Amino acid sequence: MYCRIKWMKFWPIEKHLLSSSMDKTVRLWHLSNKSCLKIFSHSDYVTCIQFNPVDDRYFISGSLDAKVRIWSIPDRQVVDWTDLHEMVTAACYTPDGQGALVGSYKGSCHLYNTSENKLQQKSQINLQNKKKKSHHKKITGFQFAPGSSSEVLITSADSRIRVVDGVDLVHKFKGFRNATSPISASLTANGKYVVAASEDSHVYIWKNEADCRPNRNKGVTVTRSYEHFHCKDVSVAIPWPGMGDAWDMHDTFSGEQPELDNNADEVASANHPPTPVEENFVTEGSRSGSGYNNSPRHATIASATNSYFFDRISATWPEEKLLLAARNQSPRVSMDFSNGASQKMSAWGMVIVTAGLRGEIRTFQNFGLPLRI
């Protein structure tokens, strides 16, 4: 039997995993066990699932049969359900587990109260999607902003990523392409960047500068500027979960040394992938003067020869290549992060994990630096 897995979610405490599939089931797995622990049968393809973030005995599921269900894992049965009368394509809990967002194939977006594991509709969100064809309105993903229970990122098949605060649309990100795929955008752990795959075989990254948005009574703001890198047939792109404030270079470059425990570097190494560049680029004098080391928390580049630098780090993303002319510009490359550039260095070291239509899983790490032109 052909069985295509559509979604996978971790059960965070006990290292369990939920998968939903085109075989009309949700399956519960344990990471140390190859066999399925439990099966939850549906009447049509299951498009979305998520554990209750505060009570992982329950999960929510959405299906092409137009129904949203809350399941009890121990009892292996539905405890409540509702009919949307439209194919359900996205669903997620609010961070406190007391609510749920549900999106449909036709672009409708509903907010439910899920207290006591009952589904009670509270409101509907207007995403201002003016596309005529319903498949161009399809909701493909949700993600709440870190630390917020009201601000959520909504991805849809009209090649838009929208930020909704409560029930109000406040921001849009444009540039990627999503017309038919179940692409879902993700926020980094510090909330400063938005990452999404695209149907043009690229991964896109936008800055999420929430503080720069004008007052909401001035209308919806739009971000059109982005960075992107090529990744053939990419269908999923997510930031590495460990990417958070530990990568933020603001304290390092502002000249204020944060107080760290003795094991801070050890913790950072445990929570993040190994840095591909092990050599310390800081000159001996600057290292001894500042006290910085080559931990990811204190990565500083003072100067390096062209051949040394360009053989190890690409211009912006791992698959991009530098022009040969860049090697002949000057005998040394010197970079100064003492001014405004240091304020935006939190993307340094960011790791993005991708999956492709051919089943390939890849990782990319950002070691891009400005070049003198």
Write the layout of secondary structure elements.
Elements: E1 5-11, E2 16-21, E3 25-30, E4 38-41, E5 46-51, E6 58-63, E7 67-72, E8 77-83, E9 88-93, E10 99-104, E11 109-113, E12 120-125, E13 139-144, E14 151-156, E15 160-165, E16 168-173, E17 186-187, E18 193-197, E19 202-207, E20 221-223, E21 227-230, E22 234-239, H1 250-254, H2 264-271, H3 284-290, E23 303-305, H4 306-310, E24 332-334, E25 351-356, E26 361-365
Structure description:
- This protein has 373 residues and is mainly beta.
- The chain has 4 helices and 26 strands.
- The chain has helices at residues 250-254, 264-271, 284-290, 306-310; strands at 5-11, 16-21, 25-30, 38-41, 46-51, 58-63, 67-72, 77-83, 88-93, 99-104, 109-113, 120-125, 139-144, 151-156, 160-165, 168-173, 186-187, 193-197, 202-207, 221-223, 227-230, 234-239, 303-305, 332-334, 351-356, 361-365.
- Strand 18 and strand 19 (202-207) form a beta hairpin.
- The longest helix has 8 residues, at 264-271.
- The protein starts with a strand and ends in an 8-residue tail after the last strand.
- This is WD repeat-containing protein 44.
Short description:
The protein is mainly beta. It has four helices and 26 strands.
Please give a handful of descriptors for the protein shown.
mainly beta; 4 helices; single chain; 373 residues; five-stranded mixed β-sheet; 26 strands; four-stranded antiparallel β-sheet
